[in-house]
Each structure stands twice: as C-alpha cells, then as structure tokens.
Amino acid sequence: MTAATTLLVDGANVVGSRPTGWWRDRAGAGADLVARLRAATTAGTLAPPVVLVLEGSARAGAPEGEAGGVAVVHAPGSGDDTLVGWTETTPGPVTLVSADRQLRERCRARGASAVGPGWLLARLGPPDPGTGR
Which pLDDT tens digit goes with each residue over 30-39? Predict the structure, then answer.
C-alpha cells in the first residue's frame, strides 16, 4: 500500500495569484482559502491530506490544526522555509502548490512535485461573489 500524496499549499502564493483585494484583509483571505479547501475535500474534489501553510497576518484567519482533511500550519517565520521543511519530513509523495519558481525548485530538490495556483483554484470552483476570493 502506498502513501497518499500530500498536497502542500503555499497559502500566500495561492491567495496572491488573483487581484481580489486580499491585501486589505489577509486574515479573511486565509480563512476563505481554508474554507474552500475543506469544502473541496468534503466534496471529493481534492483528496486529503492537504496541508495549508499560512504566514504573517493571514495566520489570524484560521487556527492551526486539522479538520476536514485539511491541516492548517502557521509559519513561524518564512512561509517558504516552512514549506520546504514539510517536503523534507512528510512521508510519501508531496505535491507543492505554488507559482514561486525558487520555492518550487527547493521543494523539487527534496523530491516533491509542483503545480501552479491555477491548478488548485480550478478545483476549488468559483470564488465567493461577496469577497471575490
């Protein structure tokens, strides 16, 4: 039996990939992404496990912990360093979701594969009409 692929999400990069005004409410944007990821795992659109790394003020949008197949992790410093650390310590295959070329290369050097934010956003469905996120 092989381990399931862990989907490792660079929250800042995914949220920042669309000009939705997220910068005015980083915590709200983080909370919206968590809710959308959990809805997608519940609906079967995404297979768990999903690990979402939040950094900076976005951490205020969701507490750390696992629910609904999605684990929220707060980066204590650099989100990139936290993501690379997860690729090093996660058993089984890891797929990083980020458009950050340097981060993708750092994670690939540790055996991870990578996809862009568009891949994930297509699976999450349309944004909330009230927030645009």
Answer: 999 999 999 9
